Amino acid sequence: MSREVRMTPSILNSDLANLQSEILRIADVSDFIHLDIMDDIFVPNFTFDFDTAAQIIADCPIPVDAHLMVANADEIGPRYADVGCESVTVHAEATRDIAGTLRQIRAAGSRAGLAVKPDTEIDEYLDFANWVDMFLIMTVEPGFGGQKFMIDMIPKIKRAKKIIGSRPIWLQVDGGISPETIEMAAAAGADTFVAGSVVFKAADPAAMVRGLRSLAKSVPQ
Ligand code: DX5
Ligand code: ZN
Fold first, then answer.
1. Distance between CA 192 and CA 7 in Å, rounded?
2. Which atom of ligand 1 is nearest to the CA of 43?
3. Candidate of 16, 48, 117, 140 to mutate for ligand 1, largest count of ligand atoms within 8 Å of Cβ
4. What is the distance between the alpha carbons of residues 140 and 45, in angstroms, rounded to a whole number?
5. Could you give the CA distance from residue 115 to residue 91 in angstroms, rounded to a whole number?
6. What is the pTM (predicted TM-score) of this model?
7. 11 CA distance to ligand 2 middle (Å)
């Protein structure tokens, strides 16, 4: 049986002035669109205000995986679930009541994700396994696309995978995913892959997504 793989391309470094057509270039070959929300507080960059993001989510032809890099995730997380994201991920470092926030996201009908930055250990947050549908291990410092994959995150991915065990929790990696790094991340246990700049820099973004997916799938279980 080949391994389970989900591709969730990030539109952060796409041509945002033509976002609809950029999304259409990859929609058929992607499981979700990964939407990075940055507030210039939790990370030193800003992407979309809530109303703009809600419009993108409403217009998106495939499910949206929102990655909230915002300071007050307790308040903002459930709002993204309310406007129809299939998956909403909050950062452990930005959420006061993690279980409560994840519960509210689920109650609004979304999958609930919990993310950790490179300097944050995952172990204590694995206690939230009952409330979470996906863990996101950042493989770059959040804030910008186009950074180098942090190879020293591999042990963290392995540990998370081991503790998840047979539970149906997805394990996502985000940052520096490319044809050179995706197999390593998959071998460590990741099953859900964000890729941004490598996809939108490619002459054929859909072919890049397909290629990344088959590389990840080719890794033995
Ligand atoms: C970075 C974002 C990522 C970003 C990934 O903080 O969370 O989703 O778009 O971009 P690449 O794939 O270029 O590292
Ligand atoms: Zn992201």
1. 6
2. 6
3. 140
4. 14
5. 5
6. 0.98
7. 9
SS3 44: coil
Centre of ligand 2 from the C-alpha of residue 48, in Å = 13
Q: Which two tokens stand for residue 149?
A: 């994959």
Instruction: Name which CATH class applies to 6-217.
Output: alpha beta
Q: What is the number of the ligand 1 atom nearest to the C-alpha of 139?
A: 14
Nearest to 163 by CA among 131, 123, 133: 123
The per-residue pLDDT string of the chain (221 residues; one tens digit each, 9 = 90 and over) reads 678 999 999 999 999 999 999 999 999 999 999 999 999 999 999 999 999 999 999 999 999 999 999 999 999 999 999 999 999 999 999 999 999 999 999 999 999 999 999 999 998 888 898 899 999 999 999 999 999 999 999 999 999 999 899 999 999 999 999 999 999 999 999 999 999 999 999 999 999 999 999 999 999 98
Give the rounded distance of the alpha carbon of 149 from its chain centre: 15
Angle between helices 205-218 and 19-26 (to 10 degrees): 40
107 CA to centre of ligand 2 in angstroms:
23
- Which atom from ligand 1 is nearest to the alpha carbon of 178? 12
Which residues carry out catalysis?
36, 174
